[in-house]
Amino acid sequence: MSLWEVAGKKPLQRVPKMRKSFGQKRLFFCLGLLFVLIILPLVFSNPAHVGIFILCGVAGVLAMGWLLILRIGGLSLGQAAFLGIGAYTSALLSKNLGLSPWLGLLLGGVAAGLVAFGIGLIFLRITGLSFAIVTFAFAEIVRLVFSTVDFFGGHGGILDIPNLTPIRLFGMGTLRFHSHIPNYYVLLMIVLVSGLFMWRMDHSALGRTFRSLPQNEDLANSLGINPLYYKLVSFVTACFFSGIAGAFTANYYNVIYPGSYTVMQSIVVQIQGTLGGAASVAFGGILGGSVMVVIEALLLKVDPRFIYIFYGLVIIIITFFLPDGLLSLPREMGKAWRKLAHWKRKSQVI
Amino acid sequence: MALLEVKKLTHNFKGLIALNNLSIEVRPGEILGIIGPNGAGKTTLFNVITGFLKPSAGEILFQGEAIGDLKPYDIVKKGLVRTFQGAGLFQQLSCLQNVVLAHQLHKKTGFWQTMLDTKEYRKREEEVYGESVDILKGLDLEDKKDLPVKDIPYGHQKMLGLAMARATNAKLLLLDEPVAGMNPAESVTIVEEVRRLRDEQEKTIAIVEHNMKVIMGVCDRIIVLNHGIKIAEGTPDLVKKDERVIEAYLGAEEV
Known about the structure:
Chain A has one domain (46-349). Chain A has helices spanning 3-6, 16-43, 47-71, 79-96, 101-123, 129-148, 180-203, 205-215, 217-222, 227-253, 263-276, 281-302, 306-321, 329-349, and strands spanning 167-169, 173-175. Chain A has a two-stranded antiparallel sheet with strand order 1-2. Chain A has 14 helices and two strands. Chain B has 255 residues and is an alpha/beta fold. Chain B has ten helices and ten strands. Chain B has helices spanning 42-49, 72-78, 95-102, 111-115, 119-138, 154-167, 184-199, 212-218, 236-241, 243-248, and strands at residues 4-13, 16-26, 31-35, 57-62, 65-66, 80-82, 172-176, 204-208, 221-226, 229-234. In chain B, the strands form two sheets. In chain B, strands 6-7-8-3-9-10 form a six-stranded mixed beta sheet, sandwiched between helices. In chain B, strands 2-1-4-5 form a four-stranded antiparallel beta sheet, covered by helices on one side. In chain B, helix 3 runs parallel beside helix 6. In chain B, 43% of the residues are buried. The chains are: A mainly alpha (350), B alpha/beta (255). The interface between A and B is large, with 32 and 42 residues.
């Protein structure tokens, strides 16, 4: 792990000048990125493209949540289930009860968070492979419940879910959400809020405590840290935002069906998170999610079966060449470059 | 009044009796040694006292208060802390991060204060980081503060572990084999630190150890365990000469 990954806060002894310039560079980078994200659908306004951006955003939120859970040592293979819980909550509330879909967004998150809290109380007492297995099982159970219980619409899912209700802008008319671009901006807000929240959590004392747990839970216990509390904070937060993203998909696509929330989907979340890199919960999540979604979209055009080969290749390449994900690419390339230079020098001497 | 009282403590590991009706007390301000052959139940005793294991029978009283049912993170809040055998640190984190985490006990900022990065939170963080750097300075580790703990020498790691236990401000420290794996020079530093903790900071210390030189040299009183039972108790001189102890243990040990 590099120092940046490990330091939740820069030590007091760092030279102030260096600190400021690095912080400034980062701030400019983020503002630049924000600018790009805001004008993105205006530049690439083809609905197909905007649709892909939205998929990137949803994947990004899920991957961010997955990485946040990884921080406490949890390998969750059930994130798709929380996407589904959020989606079904908003779908049922906005379609059957006529509740505002905006409220559905929030309640989708709350529902996912509550479920996460409930199962977390039991599941978070174990970590490692066992945790992965129980989240896997949980995801399957959720999918089965959605596809067999009539209340959830069974195999056919739920249709005719209302779009987000129009908002009246002060003096500028009404903003309707029947098309892609307004929905993109809603999702962008969700991504920004989730990203900021989870980034902040990871970089604060909370994140520091998270990291201590997979390394030595006994020591953490003996220092007054209640492991279950911190694991729950991480897990519930991650699932809350995944639920909101799920609720968004319900009101955006207007259709949801249980087949979308498979264990394969959860595994894809893990691949996205790993591809992005655990160094940064927020950036790793968005990066991994977006890259995978874009490449998937391209491959789908060629042949849908390539997707599975693609997943496999990603796992192999990451494991052997880039275990810390795309975020570590600059660092790894630097290392490779220096190694190459060293060999060249060596061969010249001979 | 005894600082820590263990009354008729029994602990079973599914048929294997690790602690057998054991009664021990730790008196305020003393340095108590707990020795015995391997498998005598010393570490089990620590695990039960500090809440990592639940007693099968018996009571544990710290400052008169029953702590037998408490979780480890609640017990340390009462003023009782332990160290672990072996390295026992957050290996991948830096020295500074490790010491900072040891201050978690005194965390005063809540969830939203942390999330919103309030002035109070920042002030608290600065304090904690400042204190942590001071602790590292005291251990001569300041230049290594950003190194992952696994990259510093084992002796330094043990000292760091001890410093972290001290950072919890506990009144009673249970040290599990603090000088295991150390050369004589390093052992001396640890022993000096233990003495300092008692003499200057009024801590009470109980040490589980196999190094007889250290135990005999630093402890006021020694308790000898074998098969989960107390077989002897007294000053180092008395214990050294006790037949049962020699028979069980010291005969095979290099003094």
